[in-house]
Amino acid sequence: MSRAPDTWILTADCPSVLGTVDAVTRFLFEQGCYVTEHHSFDDRLSGRFFIRVEFRQPDGLDEQGFRQGLAERAKAFAMNFELTAPHYRPKVVIMVSKADHCLNDLLYRQRIGQLPMDVVAVVSNHPDLKPLADWHQIPYHHFHLDPNDKPSQERQVWQVIEESGAELVILARYMQVLSPELCRKLDGKAINIHHSLLPGFKGAKPYHQAYNKGVKLVGATAHYINNDLDEGPIIAQGVEVVDHSYYPEDLIAKGRDIEGLTLARAVGYHIERRVFLNGNRTVVL
Amino acid sequence: MSRAPDTWILTADCPSVLGTVDAVTRFLFEQGCYVTEHHSFDDRLSGRFFIRVEFRQPDGLDEQGFRQGLAERAKAFAMNFELTAPHYRPKVVIMVSKADHCLNDLLYRQRIGQLPMDVVAVVSNHPDLKPLADWHQIPYHHFHLDPNDKPSQERQVWQVIEESGAELVILARYMQVLSPELCRKLDGKAINIHHSLLPGFKGAKPYHQAYNKGVKLVGATAHYINNDLDEGPIIAQGVEVVDHSYYPEDLIAKGRDIEGLTLARAVGYHIERRVFLNGNRTVVL
Amino acid sequence: MSRAPDTWILTADCPSVLGTVDAVTRFLFEQGCYVTEHHSFDDRLSGRFFIRVEFRQPDGLDEQGFRQGLAERAKAFAMNFELTAPHYRPKVVIMVSKADHCLNDLLYRQRIGQLPMDVVAVVSNHPDLKPLADWHQIPYHHFHLDPNDKPSQERQVWQVIEESGAELVILARYMQVLSPELCRKLDGKAINIHHSLLPGFKGAKPYHQAYNKGVKLVGATAHYINNDLDEGPIIAQGVEVVDHSYYPEDLIAKGRDIEGLTLARAVGYHIERRVFLNGNRTVVL
Amino acid sequence: MSRAPDTWILTADCPSVLGTVDAVTRFLFEQGCYVTEHHSFDDRLSGRFFIRVEFRQPDGLDEQGFRQGLAERAKAFAMNFELTAPHYRPKVVIMVSKADHCLNDLLYRQRIGQLPMDVVAVVSNHPDLKPLADWHQIPYHHFHLDPNDKPSQERQVWQVIEESGAELVILARYMQVLSPELCRKLDGKAINIHHSLLPGFKGAKPYHQAYNKGVKLVGATAHYINNDLDEGPIIAQGVEVVDHSYYPEDLIAKGRDIEGLTLARAVGYHIERRVFLNGNRTVVL
Q: Taking every annotated instance into account, which residue ranges of this chain make up the domain Formyl transferase N-terminal (chains A, B, C, D) (predicted)?
């Protein structure tokens, strides 16, 4: 599972048709690439093909040549592909409000190298979590949210994302609804953690909803955001057993661990290029 | 956890007030009862007290005297109680349609003594599962369901339940909606297994709903039935991890195991007198 | 995950070297095979390559030509391969003693088609489980085990296996130690379920061992048998949470579910050709 | 599960005999205490009784009178008891080496109040984790370990524990074997996290051992330390699924989450007075 330091990742997807696997593997072979892991899946319901390959090129990869060559082959299949370099570390912006359990977890995993990413900014509608960002020497932007002028705050947020060159935005318990416009801009590049097993308990106060229903399991869902709030494609879900003795505040406490773990898992999959969009579902290879 | 063969169970509940625990434990002590497990819970949100005690009475319990004596004490607390004898085996009616995984599991657990119950009848709207019941030498009643006259089939079902003296009805993937009238009659004495993590995916074809939402976990919910379909108090829930490669039929197959295990767990709790109704929630001690 | 009815499986493994993936996928393409799932793994510690491909051949596969053609390509890689036909159902012999939970579970899964196999015989050193086999119309062989002459019983067992043409032997809680000679004959084609998380609690009475150690989790391990008792390559493991209130008999009861599920999972992987031996470890694709 | 701010905890244990439950509950009633949760367990194999009660005393508890009164009643039962005040926060010393995942997790839980404890010192045989302690404003003691003179380092460690008045010592991946003498001093008041499912993979490099055995599950064990290394009474265990693609370094990474969660769970149980020693096993109420 752990990649050797010189491992590239190739991911691609296209409509289902004969020859997709061969097109990719033959090209890799011709380029002298050594495949260490290969996983492909052809979805017979959506009629779409997905592939993820890890490979090494001991002699050094001619990246430009590789891209051009593969692009030519890919054309016939209407195939999108992405080539990810060995030491890839995406720039990431994390958005938070007041709860810090997910932020603490993400920054810890960055620090020890478990999540290979560079958090270039933490953005919040509250000042509370500045000390945590400071200790990790990460710029913290507090943009006050005026309920009568949400757009101006979102413009500030977007400016940070754009200027930092962030490839991924993580909503680590950011408790504000994003505007459709910002959702559109972040389509496929922002991961949110919702504190319930979606589609159950959408919307506000899911743990209170769960308490009222008397469920015996609570969970969390990490998903890409899209226009439809709490309805974006699910990447990962986690769950824990609870019982009658858990009051709402206990469910919230229990949920913290699940939220942190589930979000970190989803971010890891994203960075390792394991996640593909397949309509409103995801394929995770 | 396993009870010695001479162990009684006392369960009770009443409004929260000072002295509830003492009222029960003092009475048990005065009667010379030896307590082996005691669990009580006072719900500060609903203001209700729940208690379950396992005990032995080596000299033999004067059951009638015990009941009368406790009834007197209980009056002041508006306390309901139930005394369950050492070798208690409730009579059970199981209702099925065509899927047999839950029935097979329940009958197996009865056979080896893991569920101490006497299945006195299997009732179905289809003839398919008769051989399985036959092999276990359990009467099988096939009552054809005429869509234009559901009440007459339900009358037949009810007659079996009543005449058999069943204390518990298990809906082991019975795929018909019960009438409000029958639900009322079965209130608190019928357990259903729903093939989703309620309240998510209520209604028909939950695994297809789950597939469409692209969830990464599927589950099952065992609950008491009440008037509101798929909304009765939850007793137990189970869950399994799935991924993109599970088509709806795979989710259904995966679900079989969870449904069987979750239903058996709920039935076990019920028979061991662990489940208390607390509004629309349950307390499981 | 569920295969379409016309899906073939190709599995292969060989020493790690450049071109292994391409050799397989190019051949499949040249034969006009449509790949639906492809998973390969190159183990950098053992230096061995493993591949499993599911594919369809709409025009009908020339099986003999396919095998010959691939054999030629495979030679250069010292690659072993196996081609499995769409409706493959291996003949299976199940060995049991007195406990029937795994047998009941396996026969149920065969009956409903969840495990595509033909159980051709049940073999036991006790007569107890004959009725269960009878009901499934499967021959039951009771071979009494004389402690002073174990070899003669093993000869009878082996005769059944051989004459039935069984490709797989399942030790479904068979409580006798097999001789090294029989182990050798069954190498790689017999799956055992051990009622602990191996390598913890090897040998007899693992649940009693677990009780004495006060563990908070119990589990089961399905593994191929080999010469070294309870040490064969692990295919699957399952686990459940327990607590102080579980006496040894409760651990045994809890264990039944895990044993059944874990064994069925391992058998399923084996039949679907997902399991590869990699020294004393397995690769499960 | 969450205690109201004015809740006391009473725990006790003694040999099994008639009247133990009544002795405790009657006393509580006579003192006007309101019981919110009561759990008792009588172990029929060890012949020992364990009880844990949460209660409120709205008029204020006469703590000294309570202790004296209960001590008198307890004498006849040879009962040990412990009374824990509402806002109890034990002083804790954490011992670490170089790995910081458990320390980071524990300090985070302290910071947000999920673990009600006061970490009064972090002690290490390495200087690496000082910045983390500094940020939480907790004194960090680096005591270099001279392999030729371990006793002198242990004396320094013990001095910190003693002078700080710590009631609990947490070995959060402290990678040195403690001397029998220090173990004896810490008996019942020090919790260690071992990175395997004990008793499997005792000793050094458990994840490498696990890799070599090809297990499909890895786990962690939190236990009290005693004389016998890696053999103290188990408080909690956690587990995660792994597969063939996990190299030893991946098992180590996967293990971090389990270790943190399992250790935090055990520490929480200890602080909430849920854990009782029962020979070499624990009872967790």
A: 91-266
| Among candidate residues A209, A211, A126, the one with its CA nearest the CA of residue A172 | A126
Cis geometry, peptide bond prior to residue D199 (ω within 30 degrees of 0): yes
Of the residues B55, B84, B113, the one at which a domain ends: B84
Tokens of D18: 């008639």
Pairing mode of beta strands C80-84, C7-15:
antiparallel
**Letter string b/e over residues D24-41, b meaning 16 or more CB atoms within 10 A of that residue's CB:** bbbbbbebebbbbbbbbb
CB contact under 8 A, D245 and C284: no
pLDDT digits (tens, 9 = 90+) for C181-226: 999 999 989 999 998 888 888 888 989 998 999 999 999 999 999 8
Give the mean pLDDT per block of 10 residues along chain A (285 residues): 87 97 97 96 96 94 96 97 96 97 97 96 97 96 93 96 97 93 92 90 88 93 86 94 95 95 98 96 97
The alpha carbon dihedral of A191, A196, A197, A201 has a sign of: negative
Matching residue, tokens 């008037």: B227
Position B263, amino acid: L
DSSP A33-59: -EEEEEEEEEETTTTEEEEEEEEE-TT
User: How much is the ipTM here?
Assistant: 0.93
Write out pLDDT tens, residues B34-78: 999 999 999 999 999 999 999 999 889 999 999 999 999 999 999
Is residue C2 in some structural domain?
Answer: no
Which of C244, C247, C261 to mutate: most D Cβ within 10 Å? C244
For residue C284, give both structure tokens.
């499960």
Residues of chain C that touch chain D, judged by Cβ-Cβ distance less than 8 Å: 41, 43-45, 197-201, 212-217, 219, 233-237, 239, 243-245, 247, 278, 280-284
- B207-256 residue pLDDT tens: 999 899 999 999 999 999 987 767 899 999 999 999 999 999 999 999 99
Rounded mean pLDDT of C10-16?
98
Residues C271, C144 share a domain? yes
Q: Are residues D51 and D128 in the same domain?
A: no
D134 and D222 both lie in a single domain = yes
In terms of CA atoms, which chain C residue is nearest residue B2?
C250
Q: Report the residue from C200, C244, C280 with minimal CB separation from D284.
A: C244
Cβ atoms of B263 and B190 closer than 8 Å:
no
Angstroms from D67 CA to nearest CA on chain A: 28
How far is the C-alpha of D11 from the C-alpha of D274, rounded, in Å?
8
CA gap B95, B147 in Å, rounded: 18
Tokens of A172: 């680590």
Q: Are C214 and D234 an interchain contact pair (Cβ–Cβ within 8 Å)?
A: yes
Distance (Å, rounded) from C-alpha A165 to C-alpha A137?
A: 18
In a domain, C227, yes or no: yes
User: What pairs with residue B221 in β-bridges?
Assistant: B194, B237
Token reading at B99: 């899927």
The overall longest dimension of chain C from CA atoms, in Å, is: 62
Q: Which amino acid is at D42?
A: D
Q: Which of A6, A63, A75 is nearest to A31 (CA)?
A: A63
Q: Inter-axis angle of helices B101-111 and C101-111, to 10 degrees?
A: 160
Q: Of the residues C49, C84, C119, which one is the last residue of a structural domain?
A: C84
State how far the alpha carbon of C272 is from the alpha carbons of A262, C2, C116, C266, in Å.
30, 10, 9, 10
Shared domain check, B48 and B108: no
In a shared domain, residues A77 and A148: no
- Same domain for C240 and C195, yes or no, is yes
The CA distance from C141 to C130, in Å, is 8
**Of the candidates D2, D100, D112, which has its C-beta nearest A247's C-beta?**
D2
Locate tokens 């190159």: which residue? C42
- CA–CA separation, C19 and D260 (whole Å): 42
CA dihedral A173, A175, A177, A181 (to 10 degrees): -60
